[in-house]
Amino acid sequence: MDDTILLLLASGMLVAAFVYASVGHGGASAYIAAMALAGIAPAEMRPIALTLNILVSALATYKFWRAGHFRWRLFWPFAAVSIPFAYLGGAITLPGNLYKVVVGLVLVYAGWQLWRSFRTGEEMRPVREPAVPLAMAIGAAMGLLSGLTGVGGGIFLSPLLLMLGWAGTKQTSAVAAPFILVNSVAGLAAGFVDGTAALPESTWVLAAVVLVGGWLGAEYGSRRFANPVVRRVLAVVLAVAGAKMVFV
Fold first, then answer.
1. What's the pLDDT tens digit per position in 148-164?
2. Residue 165 CB neighbours (<10 A)
3. What is the DSSP letter of 220?
């Protein structure tokens, strides 16, 4: 890869890692978009994006946990069944682009709702924990959606937790980060097992960059950003991801 292109790519990923980590996400969709613009081969894009996603979501998991926002009781029902369903979704090919358009519009709508919630104060609504069977059923759906669409499961899980009042803003980020982490690890491992995953040397430069951006973003998101600010950042992330699904 040309040094100039690598520098521009790393700069974009630094910003993306900061923004995504501040809301507990890994940033895979942004990395893929940046790599597509840089002309990286499609076969290399997925393993690179998953590797960077793992690094950033791991940092976000640690930071939000250290800040005291992680809740195991909320996390495990969603995560327990998401991985096998993500694998199942990845094995299914849907005809046409209608499904992507519908899901993309849902993400844009969720982003709009979160943006509007800026005026509601610290939390959108009173927090109450979901029933375990319901959370597991939703985790399965999130995993399936992740596999079908190629979008990280946290993109779907975060707005759902917030709008249904199942978690506070920081708790949502603290649950989304490890949710993304476990699914990204599973996806990358599957690629190495079947021989489709290969990482070019430039991956390690990009990894170093997103570690810096992810560390700073997770630090500010977990401790310094006010909850309404975090929701607005998440709203932008959702809207961008939704638009990408509709138009790309």
1. 665 667 777 888 888 88
2. 15
3. I
